[in-house]
Amino acid sequence: MKEISIKAKASVYPVIIHQGLLNNILNYLDRNQKYVLIHDDLIPEAYVSKVACACDDPLVIAFPAGEKSKTVETHQEIVRKMLANLIKKDAVIIALGGGVTGDLAGYVASTYMRGIAYIQIPTSLLAQIDSAIGGKVGVDFADTKNVLGSIYPPKMVLVDPLTLSTLPKRHFANGMAEMIKYGMIADRELFVALKENNVMEMLEWAIHRSIEIKKSFVEKDEQDEGERRLLNFGHTFGHAIETYYNYEKYLHGEAVAIGMVRIIQNDQIRKELVSVLRKYDLPTEDPVSVDELKPYILKDKKHRAGKNIYVDIEAIGKAFIRSLDL
Length: 326
Known about the structure:
Number of domains: 2
Shape: globular
Order of helices and strands: EEEHEHEHEHEEEHHHHHHHEEE
Largest sheet: 7 strands, mixed
Number of helices: 11
Radius of gyration: 19 Å
Oligomer: single chain
Structural class: alpha/beta
Strand content: 15-25%
Distance between the termini: 48 Å
Helix content: 25-40%
CATH class of the largest domain: Alpha Beta
CATH topology of the largest domain: Rossmann fold
């Protein structure tokens, strides 16, 4: 078992990484606590059962899987069910699943009765190394990704790498895009390790290292106003591409992979990135033009007074911020 402590502005929360953690979930939950277990309808029933059985009469709420459920309407439906079941402010939400589940359940937690506690139990690679860490929660609205949300850290994050064994190959690759991103912006050693080795042979190390990198950014800049923005490498184009195709053509990490390739100005660095992305079966290009993406980029939260903030790569392991006119 490994534990990483994340220092947020108002609290410190643990990220616990342990093979088989779900088999011992009772060690991390309080039988006297009221829980609301939120998950999508594609998560393995065995995971839901293990967590639910560790709780005393939890309220279990399922929603349709996919980015299209990350909406105000789904948020409202979950809140209605919680109110109908007389869920009080001292209850704790458990977000069991991937990035959409964590974003949505975390947003419910941040808004229900002006904020209740929540626990992240991420079951996808992307969620384990990225979206469950750092407290960003929210929903999509009006063709704009994550436009409604807040920074609301969880009570704890419980990572069981064994859950990745049931993850479809495409969804595993989806998470690899974010892991490769970490190497590109902050850790050449990680990038080279992913390039030269089979990630499955060093998976727990790679997960731990990725979380450590995310920790280093969010602790310095929790509110995403300075250095944390480097984590947005590939995300301006990535979010625009996701939205342009109505979340139907690409998963988040796939769109970010294309976005990373598009923004890099150095040809040699771009070539190295493309090679590693292709190794992990990630897309590297799409025919959609910048003009077609522009309406979505203009709505991006990183857009400032006619300019958009992009993250580029100076050298593998070292990123910088630049702005471009649109």
